[in-house]
Structure formats: structure tokens, C-alpha cells
């Protein structure tokens, strides 16, 4: 039954549930979910927490990931994912949408929308994907001020500080920044765009006791590793940020090409989610049962 109308909704706030999941001994696996439907499918596959990527959000809107979207636009995505799945959600907060006061506003908006955690990055606007070139960084002290603001505003939200410094300042600079961010109140550190297993090992060794997040994005600078391999390296969380959107976009492109070529979708039918599967996933009949004036829908006996 959908979370929205579940008989037993979680009483604990999303941040508390995210912390509880993070405290478990196994690495916390956070697949990207770019909308409510993806969240439902990830939950059905057995995942207990999710990630919302800024790159996936903007791409789904037909925009590049350059820090263009607003707090309220992100909150729209948070609400649909949290409401659909009921799972604790880590949200990409980009650079915080401004300075300290803007960061505090972001934290409260995200909490109210249903987020369990947020990560902030130490880039300057216009920010770039962490795996691209020539990223411009804020000063470590300015970023620490944002982290402190986020920690102060959070009632239950988990605050994760991302540093993109490895590319320009090396591990030495990334670790120094990470220590400052932890002192400012970060609950965990996200060292972005590490390019070797050795770098992951070094960051882990130099930040003892600090919770660490790994990014396993495809087509980036990080070598392909499994969740188990990241766990063996000592990491506490791993995200696959844009994977769901990449697969969905590829499938849609194939559909449109087929329709343009054939004037029909017939060749794509075997690759489609059926009407019955869709209705089951979104809980159509469960919603209908809430209002006795709505007749229970019956899936047509369709022959393709």
C-alpha cells in the first residue's frame, strides 16, 4: 500500500530514520530516485533509503547541472519521493542556494518536505558536476560557515559536507577541508571525484571515526566498485546518483525512435511496464478503496 495512505506511517522524523540506517554495520546503499515512481520501484527492490541527485533533477527538467534550480523546485521532488516511498532520503543541496541564511532556509524547507539528510558542496556558482574539469572552490572558512549554519538550523536532518578539493588541492587539501567541516558540525564527509582505490583508502585512513560517503556514478572519474568493495574500504554510504535517470532516458529515446520509424509502439510493448504493473506499483485500488464512490478499476483484457 502506498506510504501516503499506509495504516502505519513512520512516527520518527526522516532524519532520525536516516541516522538509524547509517548506524547499522553494513554500508548504507542509496540508489538515486529521480521521481516518485523511481522511488517506489527502488523500495520494491528492497532498498531502505534513497538519494536525490541535483544532476538527475535538473536533467529531468531539461536543464544542465549548473546550480540553476531553486529550493522550492527541489522541495517538489523531495515531497513526491518521500510521500510515495516513505523512505529516508538524502538530498543533493548543491552549494546551499546562497550564503549562511540561505543554507538555514534550505535545511528547514527540506526537513518540512520530508528529507532525512542533505549534502552541501564547497564549490562556487555556477557549480559543475563533481566529475568535470575546472571546478571553482569556495574558501574552506566560507564553506565551514555554511556547514555550521546547516547544523544550527537542522532539527533532525543529517548534514553531510561534500568537498570537491581533491581535483585541485589533492588529498592533503581535501582532508584538511573535511576536518574543518567536521569541526563546524558536519555529520559526515563526501569526498567527491576520487580517482583511485588508493585515494579512497588514504581519505579513510586520515579521517578516523568520520562517516564517509562514496559516489559510484557511471561515466565519471571514480573506478567502478561495488557496494561491498566500498564497505571493505571503510566507507559508510554509497550513492548511485543518476543511474535510474540514465536507464529511463535511454529507454525513452528508443521508444520515440521506434514510434517515429514505425508509427506505432508495437515493437516496444515487451519492454513496457504493463498497465497492471503500473497500477499495482502506485496502489490504484488502495486509493480507490478510500472513497466508496469510486468503483474499483478493472484492468482491460487487452490483446496486443
UniProtKB/TrEMBL annotation:
One of its GO terms (molecular function) is metal ion binding. Pathway: Organic acid metabolism; propanoate degradation. Keywords: Lyase, Magnesium, Metal-binding. Its EC number is 4.1.3.30. Its cofactor is Mg(2+). GO terms for biological process: propionate catabolic process, 2-methylcitrate cycle. It comes from the Bacteria. It catalyses: (2S,3R)-3-hydroxybutane-1,2,3-tricarboxylate = pyruvate + succinate. InterPro entries: ICL/PEPM, Isocitrate_lyase_ph_CS, PrpB, Pyrv/PenolPyrv_kinase-like_dom, Pyrv_kinase-like_dom_sf. PANTHER family: CARBOXYVINYL-CARBOXYPHOSPHONATE PHOSPHORYLMUTASE, CHLOROPLASTIC, PHOSPHOENOLPYRUVATE CARBOXYLASE. Catalyzes the thermodynamically favored C-C bond cleavage of (2R,3S)-2-methylisocitrate to yield pyruvate and succinate. Belongs to the isocitrate lyase/PEP mutase superfamily. Methylisocitrate lyase family. This is Methylisocitrate lyase. It comes from Pseudogemmobacter humi.
Amino acid at each position: 500500500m502506498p506510504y501516503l495512505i499506509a495504516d502505519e506511517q513512520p512516527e520518527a522524523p526522516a532524519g532520525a530514520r536516516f541516522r538509524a540506517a547509517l548506524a547499522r554495520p553494513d554500508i548504507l546503499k542509496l540508489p538515486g530516485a529521480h521521481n516518485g515512481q523511481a522511488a517506489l520501484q527502488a523500495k520494491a527492490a528492497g532498498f531502505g533509503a534513497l538519494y536525490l541527485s541535483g544532476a538527475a533533477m535538473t536533467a529531468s527538467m531539461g536543464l544542465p547541472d549548473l546550480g540553476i534550480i531553486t529550493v522550492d523546485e527541489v522541495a517538489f521532488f523531495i515531497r513526491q519521493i518521500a510521500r510515495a516511498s516513505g523512505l529516508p532520503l538524502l538530498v543533493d543541496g548543491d552549494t546551499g542556494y546562497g550564503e549562511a541564511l540561505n543554507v538555514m532556509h534550505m535545511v528547514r524547507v527540506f526537513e518540512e518536505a520530508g528529507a532525512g539528510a542533505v549534502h552541501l558542496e564547497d564549490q562556487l556558482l555556477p557549480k559543475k558536476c563533481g566529475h568535470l574539469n575546472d571546478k571553482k572552490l569556495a574558501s574552506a572558512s566560507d564553506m565551514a560557515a555554511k556547514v555550521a549554519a546547516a547544523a544550527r538550523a537542522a532539527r533532525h536532518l543529517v548534514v553531510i559536507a561534500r568537498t570537491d578539493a581533491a581535483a585541485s588541492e589533492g588529498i592533503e587539501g581535501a582532508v584538511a577541508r573535511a576536518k574543518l567541516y567536521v569541526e563546524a558540525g558536519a555529520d559526515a564527509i563526501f569526498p567527491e571525484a576520487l580517482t583511485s582505490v588508493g585515494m579512497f583508502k588514504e581519505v579513510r585512513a586520515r579521517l578516523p571515526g568520520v562517516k564517509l560517503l562514496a559516489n559510484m556514478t557511471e561515466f565519471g572519474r571514480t573506478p567502478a566498485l561495488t557496494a561491498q568493495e566500498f564497505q571493505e574500504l571503510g566507507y559508510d554510504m554509497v550513492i548511485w546518483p543518476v543511474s535510474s535517470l540514465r536507464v529511463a532516458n535511454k529507454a525513452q529515446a528508443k521508444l520515440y525512435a521506434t514510434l517515429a520509424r514505425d508509427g506505432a509502439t508495437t515493437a516496444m510493448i515487451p519492454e513496457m511496464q504493463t498497465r497492471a504493473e503500473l497500477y499495482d506499483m502506485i496502489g490504484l485500488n488502495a486509493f480507490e478503496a478510500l472513497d466508496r464512490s469510486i468503483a474499483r478499476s478493472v484492468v482491460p483484457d487487452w490483446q496486443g
